[in-house]
Structures are given as structure tokens and as C-alpha cells.
Amino acid sequence: MDSPENSRPESGHGWTGDQVDRIISNLLRLGLVLSAAVVAVGAAIYLARHGNQATAYRVFRGEPPDFRLVENIFTAGTRFRGRGFIMAGLLLLIATPVARVAFSVLAFLRQRDHIFAAVTIFVLAVLLFSIFWLGVR
Predict the structure, then answer these.
(1) Amino acid 13: pLDDT
(2) Phi-psi region for residue 14, left (φ > 0), alpha (ψ -120 to 50) or beta?
(3) Higher per-residue confidence, 2 vs 111
(4) In this predicted structure, what is the pLDDT of residue 135?
(5) What predicted TM-score, i.e. pTM, was given to this entire model?
(6) Which residues contact 5 (CB under 8 A, 6 or more apart)?
(7) CB burial class (10 A; 0-12, 13-18, 19+) of residue 42?
(8) Cα 113 from Cα 79, distance rounded (Å)
(9) Nearest alpha-carbon partner for 97 in 20, 21, 29
(10) Rounded distance, CA 25 to CA 6, Å?
(11) Are 92 and 38 in contact (CB under 8 A)?
(12) Which of 7, 35, 49, 51 is deepest in the core (most CB within 10 A)?
């Protein structure tokens, strides 16, 4: 059973805790489903074009340089390359929890909970730093 303080907005403004939880739940669900759909489309395209090719398991080949930049991944997707779709789906999967943290910042600001907003902004900054700065190297 929900507690009374979680079902009403604090000081008559912002979202209730239940509303925030529902929005975050839907955001995470949407991100997962969208990511899975994009990966599935990419897998179908990839298998339709390359399903008959023999695979050399003794030789490891990393991801081609084309797929090391976000712009190239989306360009490959617009050209209906299977790997481009798969990589774009994985980027969506990575972006889903980041979007959750970004939404949490907005929710805390709307609820005027500045301490939690500041902590969440710090967490968001660390996430973005680790993705964009450390991921580039």
C-alpha cells in the first residue's frame, strides 16, 4: 500500500512520487522496447544480406572503424546496413538509463528538491563524462 506522503505533491507543486515512478518506469520500458526493435530490424537486415557467409571463428576482427563514431552509426542505419541498425539499437540501450537520470533532474527541480537535483546533476555529469570523454579514447 502506498504511503500518504508518496501520493501527494510536496507543498502543492511538482509531481508526486508515484507519478515520477510511473513516468520513469514507462521511460525505461520504452527505451528497452525501442532498442530491442531496432536491434531486431538490424539483425534481420544483416542476416538477409550476410546469412550465407562462412564465419572464421579462429580470427578475431573488431568492429570496423566506420562504427566507432555515432555519426557513422546513424549514417549506416540510414543506408539500411544491418550493423548500423544493431549499433544504433545498442546506443539507444545505453542512452535509456542516461535519459532516466536526466528526467530525474527535471523531476527533482520541479519538486523543488534542490539537494537531490544537485546530486543527480553530478551523477548525470559523471555518466556523460564517462560516455563522451572516456569512450572516445
Answers:
(1) 65
(2) left
(3) 111
(4) 60
(5) 0.76
(6) 17
(7) buried
(8) 45
(9) 29
(10) 16
(11) yes
(12) 35
DSSP code, position 15:
-
Cell of 116: 537531490
For 21-70, write each residue's pLDDT tens digit. 999 999 999 999 999 999 999 999 999 988 888 877 888 877 777 777 77
Least confident of 6-15, 80-89, 90-99, 106-115: 6-15
Looking up cell 548525470, which residue turns up? Answer: 124
pLDDT tens-digit map of 97-123: 999 999 999 999 999 999 999 999 999
How many C-beta atoms lie closer than 10 Å to residue 65's C-beta?
Answer: 8
Q: Which residue type, as a one-letter code, is found at position 80?
A: F
List the domain boundaries for the chain.
16-133
In the three-class reduction of DSSP (H, G, I as helix; E, B as strand; rest coil), residue 1 is classed as coil
Report the alpha-carbon distance of residue 19 to residue 21 in Å, rounded.
5
Cα–Cα dist 132/121, whole Å? 16
Cα-flanking dihedrals φ and ψ of residue 13, to 5°?
-140, 165
> Quick one: cell of 127?
555518466
Q: Count other C-beta atoms under 10 Å from residue 128's C-beta.
A: 13
